[in-house]
Structures are given as C-alpha cells and as structure tokens.
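Posted in: Protein Modeling Q&A

I'm a second-year student putting together a small comparison for a lab meeting, and my supervisor asked me to include a predicted structure for Phosphatidylserine decarboxylase proenzyme. I've never done this before, so apologies if this is the wrong subforum. The sequence is pasted below exactly as I got it from our records. If anyone can share the structure token output, I'd also love a short note on what stands out.
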Amino acid sequence: MAGEILDNRGRGDAHWRLPPVHPEGRKFALIAAAASLVTALLAWETLAWPLAFLTIGILAFFRDPERVVPQGDDLIVSPADGLVSLIAEVEPPKELTIDDGSGTRGLSSGPVTRISIFMSAFDVHINRAPIGGTVKRLVYIPGKFMNADLDKASEDNERQHLLIERPDGLLIGFTQIAGLVARRIVPFVKPGDLVASGQRIGLIRFGSRVDVYLPAGTAARVVLGQTVVAGETVLAEAGTQQLIEGVSQ
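Accepted answer (user: helix_wrangler)
Welcome! Here is the predicted structure, written out as tokens:
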C-alpha cells in the first residue's frame, strides 16, 4: 500500500501484485486495443495479432509499480530505472547555474559528479525525485533525438532540467533527456511544488536518459554498468566520498 512504512525488522505488509498502468499510457493502450478488436472483427488477423501484442507492450511500458523509498537525511535516490551508463566530472548545465531572474539561486559553478542513467524501452519510465524539497526550477529545452546513451545527448537532445532544494538549502539538479524513440517529456510537477524523496515527478516516453548532478564533495555510491531502481537505489550520500568498486559477473 502506498505510504506504508516497511523496515528491516519485518514491519509492514508486502505481497506481489501486478503493477498498475499510469493514466498517461491508458489512452494509447485503449487506441491499440480498439484497433486490434476492429481488425479482428474484420478478420484481418495479420493486423489484429500485432496490434494485440502492441497493446500488451504499451501496458508494460507505462507500468507504475510502487517503490519502497529508503529514508535518510543525506540520501540521494535514483530518479530513474535503468543502467548507469556514464559517471563523469562535468560542469552543471547553465540552465541550472545561471541567475534566471526569479530570485532562486542555482547550482554553484565548478565540476561536480554527473551520474547518467540510460532507460531502455523495457524499463519503467516514471521518474522520481532524488530528494525531498521544493521544486525551484523546471526548464524545457527543445533539441534533437539522438541516442540517449551518447555523452553529447546531454547538450544536444530535447531535455528538461529540474532543480530541487531541501529545507536545509541543499540543491540537487537533474535532467530528463529524450532519446531516439522518446518524443515527449511529461512533467507531473511545477516550480513551487513540494515533493517527497522518491515521489513521481514525470515520465519520458519510449526510451531515454536521466542525468543527476551530485553536490560538490559528494561521490557516487553506484558503479558504472550497475542497474538502478527509481526511488529505491541510493545513488549517493551528500557530503560523502568513497571509492566503490564492483565486479561484473
């Protein structure tokens, strides 16, 4: 049940269930299902079966499972499901650092660790807040639709920057990036909204990427090639730097 507290001593109630489908995807599934039904009634089986499988694929793509969000003052959780495809020291995007005239401070300039998470068409595409706080910026940038796995996609592709400020002033910036197939970034929040860590903040349709910019002096707690889960995997602990190694098996 959403909002239920679970812990490592057995508190709470957990059981398997089919994940619900997000409302954003239901209209596409209904269209595909209706087309499949019509073609079946017309005995056009060569079209009816592919459309039926397309309906199932759409329902799977827009699945929206519940997540158990780890609680901790300095924990930064993954905003996306997918593969950690890049970890690099970079300058944050200017949209997250410049004075935008709103009176809201942005990220400080200077290299920080960026974690890039690539979402394939098979991953859950609901994105979640990496920390709890207030949404300070939401900046949409039109662009290209190159492979989101490429480093230059951070600067060339269609994208949306978000900035969240914790009550103690810690700022986390992250960017939703459209990919080859993804053609729309759908926000669920707006500037001024209060969000909890792990709360749903938007989705990207059909394959994409999310970049997270860690605070200065913070190292990743995930490794390159690791699969992460939105709202559950801890990407970093603010102010903590530690070498973490993994072995591919």
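A couple of things worth pointing out for your meeting: The chain has two domains: 23-61, 75-237. The mean pLDDT is 88.
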